[in-house]
Design brief:
It holds the Pfam family ORC3_N. The chain is mainly alpha-helical and 460 residues long. Among the domains are: 165 residues, no CATH class; 107 residues, Orthogonal Bundle (Arc Repressor Mutant, subunit A), CATH 1.10.10. It is built from 20 helices and five strands. Strand 4 and strand 5 form a beta hairpin. Helix 13 runs antiparallel to helix 15 and helix 18 crosses helix 19.
Length: 460
């Protein structure tokens, strides 16, 4: 037997908890007000501490940016300055704010902008943000990728971006969703375009799909001369080639849902059906035009072919825009490929010189002896430093004596009491010289058998 019970919902306020077990409600009210007052004081002090911490972190970041390449403009023509500027300094900002007002910063900086573009040259600086998702919304408001979008909006929208946190978060979420949709639509349309361009003579947009992909990433591909010439060639395709290419495009788009590209697949299938159904009529029309030599009026096949190519051109303009047109594209794209390539493609000679001349840059155990020639360094480093002090030809015996002096001498030993070179030291020296010869720093001399020729100069 089921009994239906209905209970009245009770609304319990926070102040009611302070009245439990008390006879006088006034005491509970005072306790509640005291608790609220203390909580507001704690919250205020925490916010003040957070603001002070943010200010100090931001001041340290500004100081880091100023000191990272302080002598770049004064000595940028020097070799040592160019070498130091090739290293990108990196700072880690754990929490805090960026500029309190990006627009205010821009307005103040316009008065200090130098007239010469050369004054703006400076090496890159990297700032690493940890746990960006937990940052307050005003950090994203000052972010450059957001500010570049805000600048092109109406004044009302700009105010909402800078004052309404909820609107900013919703807009940022919309940007990310649009960026995801952009990627979903980009690839299938790119593959369709490649099906058309890979059959053209001389491959104006590249034979491989990666070449077409790079062209679409760099600029608006429909504004390039190669794309215009490709469209001209496509407007002269034969019926068999056009039908075969459309069939390939239909197979490419079939795995994708209609939600991504709308009615693109259906439209291509309609073109394919029209071309196949009017085969006899199209051939008859072509023969008739060839006999009468009428070139002014287009046949049905030519009109349908132009319609197909125009539809392909509209797909390219709608879905193959470069990433720079999408807000927040900097989240997944990196445009300064030359800087990245410069640091990934290492220079072996400079790396060898740094490792051999200053092993403390790689070995932490030698940090206290940076730049000093001691027996704690590897044998090849000792031999390399000694060979830098020699001329074009190096006497092997003198080199061995200097090597043994460094290897067998302690800080508290007497140089006059050194013993002759033992077999172990001799073997270590031979191995170090052989390694230097393998790296291309020295080679045997044909002039003197007891000498080796030095092959590098200038410290590297």
């Amino acid at each position: 037997m089921k009994v239906g019970l209905t209970a009245r919902q009770l609304v319990i306020l926070a102040a009611d908890y302070f009245n439990e077990g008390l006879k006088d409600p006034e005491d509970g009210r005072k306790r509640f007000e005291s608790c609220q007052f203390l909580w507001q004081q704690m919250k205020l002090q925490t916010e003040q501490l957070q603001e002070e911490l943010n200010r100090k972190l931001f001041d340290n970041l500004i100081s880091f940016l100023k000191k990272s390449h302080s002598d770049f403009h004064d000595q940028k023509s020097g070799w040592s300055c160019r070498v130091r500027s090739s290293e990108i300094p990196t700072a880690a900002l754990l929490l805090g704010k960026l500029f309190f007002s990006y627009i205010h910063l821009i307005n103040n900086s316009t008065e200090l902008m130098p007239s010469s573009p050369g004054h703006w040259q400076a090496p890159p600086v990297v700032v690493v943000f940890k746990d960006l998702e937990s940052f307050p919304a005003n950090v994203l408001q000052e972010f450059i990728v957001i500010s570049s979008y805000v600048e092109n909006q109406t004044p009302e929208t700009q105010v909402k971006f800078l004052t309404n946190d909820s609107y900013l978060k919703e807009t940022a979420q919309t940007f990310l969703e649009n960026l995801h949709s952009y990627h979903e639509n980009f690839i299938p349309v790119l593959r369709c375009l490649h099906q058309f361009t890979c059959i053209l003579p001389k491959y104006p947009l590249g034979k491989q799909i990666r070449e077409l992909y790079c062209a679409c990433l760099e600029k608006k591909v429909w504004e390039t001369e190669d794309y215009i010439s490709a469209l001209q060639l496509l407007r002269m395709l034969a019926k068999e080639e056009l039908v075969a290419t459309l069939q390939k495009c239909v197979e490419v788009l079939r795995p994708y849902s209609e939600r991504q590209l709308g009615g693109t697949l259906k439209k291509l299938e309609e073109f394919l059906v029209q071309l196949q159904c009017h085969e006899g009529k199209i051939l008859a029309t072509l023969l008739e035009m060839k006999e009468t030599r009428r070139t002014k009026k287009l046949s049905k096949f030519e009109s349908l072919r132009l319609e197909v190519i125009d539809f392909l051109d509209s797909l390219v303009r709608d879905y193959l825009a470069p990433p720079e047109t999408q807000p927040l594209y900097e989240v997944v794209y990196f445009s300064a490929a030359s800087i990245l390539r410069k640091h990934l493609n290492a220079v072996p000679r400079i790396a060898f010189h740094t490792a051999l001349n200053n092993p403390s840059s790689y070995l932490k155990s030698l940090e206290n002896e940076a730049g000093a020639l001691t027996n704690a360094a590897p044998d090849i480093c000792i031999a390399y430093k000694l060979h830098l002090e020699c001329g074009r030809l190096i006497n092997l015996y003198d080199w061995l004596e200097a090597f043994a002096t460094v290897v067998n001498t302690n800080d508290d030993s007497d140089l006059d009491s050194l013993e002759p070179v033992d077999e172990m030291t001799h073997a270590r020296f031979i191995r170090a010289v052989s390694e230097l010869e393998l790296l291309g720093f020295v080679k045997p001399s044909k002039q003197k058998t007891d000498h080796v020729a030095r092959l590098t100069w200038g410290g590297c």
